[in-house]
Fold these 4 entries.
Entry 1:
Amino acid sequence: MTIDEFGELLKMIQGAYPQRLLTRETANIWFQHLKNCDYHVVKRRIEAHIKESPHLPKISDLYEPPVEETAILETMAV
């Protein structure tokens, strides 16, 4: 995901949890862990979390390991 896409996700989180402002340091840590994730997957996870929890999500709630092409090809070969 790009830094601009991450910024959009932060706006969504801040809008849903206005009582909990994220510091720049926290946002940087989140970006370092989420930058290799697919933007749309993380966005869906945020949307689901907002509907289910009154608490700010953790990185582990949003992280989706990138899918490697070799794993897909191996699955298709089965």
Entry 2:
Amino acid sequence: MKNICDWNNCAEEGNYKAPKERDNSKNFRLLCLKHVKEFNKKWNYFSGMNDQQIIEFLKSDITWHKPTQSFGSSDNFFKILWNDALKDEMDKIKYNNDFNHMNKFKFNNYDIKAFSILGVDVAQKWEKVQEKFKKLVKKFHPDKNSGNKKFEEKLKIITLAYTQLKNTYREKIDG
């Protein structure tokens, strides 16, 4: 069964989809090649929208019109991980500023990998680990990098590494 072109009095076969005018839904009409070309020359998706509506549409188009979570969203995985990392109870513990005694402890593979991710030497003083973490956070924070997912993923890994070392240092000092 042939589809007839949905143009005024056209008897050609309609093989090409075209949106129904002023209808942003998935509804379409079938047109012949000649009329779909004519339609496309005149089609303006933003017809009838004011400047603000167009700007909002373009902003939403960046995320494929899907809702996104802001960094500050309470159920954002990254924020939960971040807040956990910032709950640094190491500052509450009064201990010797010199961590030379840490060298006698053995660090597991996860600790060694975490030191590597943060770019600090194994058994580094805790203050140096914190200092490096803060620098990396400033460098890779999503707000500093226009929300780029690549940087967000990198910061997640850095935060996990920091959390690993925080827990290890806490165990070594408390234990």
Entry 3:
Amino acid sequence: MDSKEISPVVIARLPRYYRYLGELKENGIERISSKELSGRMKVTASQIRQDFNNFGGFGQQGYGYNVDYLYEEIGKILGLTKKYRMIVIGAGNLGQALAGHSAFERRGFLLTAIFDIDPKLEGKKIHGIPVTGMGELPGFIKKQGADIAVITTPSEAAREIASELYQYGVRGFWNFAHTDLHLPEDAVVENVHLTESLMRLSYALKTLE
């Protein structure tokens, strides 16, 4: 089924299902019911069944869900069966932390280069990958390409860099800069604002008072 027909809210829950199913696999659990999965995820069993029915169901009445099969099928829906070439723009603390996240490669996101404007950082290895100057970016993209750019620069630089990368053919943007990126419709942008998440936590704590 075309994922465009599915509610974005349902799509947003799929990575969480995938993560929980991965944990079940690691613990040797072979099958699970929607009720049991509901108890672990704090999502109603009815909601879980409705979500999965958007993609054909996956389960059998009286049996539940085969964990390995469901994990693989959700991985396919999320596009995790292919490899993505990923570059990091900005070798500051956040860029370095993201570059060292071991789970990315296990999920098929292969970090191929790290770029920064600071000449003092050029050549410094971050988890085995040397930092390259921004001047080398056009040539790198032309020669090796990139599917996803992880942007951790200041806001103004982020907008300029994203526009430049789009012109070079990059279409996936994971943006951690303190600004939303607005690119043409054939680009896919995931804006991640850590302070907004912290403010939501603050609000939740305030309601407990």
Entry 4:
Amino acid sequence: MDQQLLRSYFATIYEFPSPTGTVRASLDGEALTDLSEVPELLRSTFAVLTAYNPRSMLLPRRVNEARQQVMRDLLILGVYRVEPCMGHEPDKKESVWREPAWLVHGMDRDEAIAFGRVFRQNSIICATGGQPEIVVTDPTADDVGRSFEGNWRVRA
């Protein structure tokens, strides 16, 4: 995977819904020994999936929204609890890139990878027990299935 693209994935700030309000986090944090410091949501098992812009190919908004709706419907048919979330560049004021995604509660890694492959995403995010990882899902990549572990960094 291109190193600049990987760095941008780690620095992306995700806005996740939670019962206590929006949790803003990225995957570029320091390793923590005490996970009680991170919000409960980030200690759970979930995946972050999107159907937008497959293989980084910019598609018209209407097409992206339709793809995203199809993904949501399939996730709900799979009996997953699905909530909208958003990923954006660290500098929100100057950021032009914002990508809607789905926070999929309780989804295991293998199924998340399958969704990433079907929707032609470069990668997906899986989190289990407070440990997030970026997993390459682009079937044309040499390192498909490769995982890059991150650490949660809660943002203000």
